[in-house]
């Protein structure tokens, strides 16, 4: 009898420990890595689609902006290469982070659709894109909180960003509800720095008047999740992607 | 487009616990307590039996 009780408790504890998401007990969460270095990009030839964590790493010596996007159905790497400057019209389902200095990494969570995806560098277009085949799947085990704050990215305004928030590491669900690609570039700014002063600091001659806290960008109808480490302070969320019609950077239009 | 927001300092009070505590943490903690208690009783019983 004693052994039955003892073994039952062991089984109970084992089940609870396995079910627990605590790091020491939970199965390690897989992460899809996309590395950029001085030779180009390194990404698996094939990825399983679904909800995944994408980690972008800059292992090179120059900064970059890795763009991970999907070719429209029917398009091929050959048609993309032949399209030249109009190749941007052949892609959709953008899932990417922002400016990535050497030695840095950044992550996001995306629901990858099956198809041919490619990664390229917006800063260094001479680096050839690398293609990967995303097959239908159930993701890498990544889970997102059901009660994640939903941030709407519209033409041209954000919704869902509370003016006062508490410290923590919330996972935001950022939905592109517009008709153009949009991004959330989050910066911490000093007290007294106005949005106008912040924007004016991007003149190419001086460092930005803010500390980058993460960037994600996606396309209409898509959503991206990202965990932000919000410490006390003042923040500004910006979309720098120019208006597709006027070409004007969208911050100046608001 | 852009918007600003503020992250206020953490509240001075302790965060609320209780109903917000995940069930698996509750069971993990109490399970460990029960296991230790059972092992203790078992050791006492075995020691008494040997004597």
Describe the protein.
The complex is a heterodimer of chains A (254) and B (51). With 254 residues, chain A is mostly beta strands. Chain A folds into two domains: 9-24 and 144-239, Immunoglobulin-like (Sandwich), CATH 2.60.40; 32-135, Immunoglobulin-like, CATH 2.60.40. Chain A has three helices and 18 strands. In chain A, the strands form three sheets. In chain A, strands 2-1-4-8-17-14-11-12 form an eight-stranded mixed sheet, with no helix packed on it. A five-stranded mixed sheet of chain A has the order 3-10-9-5-6, with no helix packed on it. In chain A, strands 7-16-15-18 form a four-stranded antiparallel sheet, with no helix packed on it. In chain A, a hairpin with a 2-residue loop joins strand 11 (150-154) and strand 12 (157-159). Chain A is globular and about 80 Å long. The relative contact order of chain A is 0.15. Mean pLDDT of chain A is 86; it is low at 20-29. Chain B is mainly alpha-helical and 51 residues long. Chain B has one helix at residues 23-50; one strand spanning 2-7. The longest helix of chain B has 28 residues, at 23-50. Chain B starts with a strand and ends with a helix. The mean pLDDT of chain B is 82. The A-B interface holds A 2, 5-6, 9-10, 12-13, 16-17, 19-22, 153-154, 156-158, 161-167, 182, 189, 195, 199, 230-239, 250-251, 253-254 and B 1-11, 24-25, 27-28, 31-32, 34-35, 38, 42, 45. Strand 13 (164-165) of chain A pairs parallel with strand 1 (2-7) of chain B, so a sheet runs across the interface.
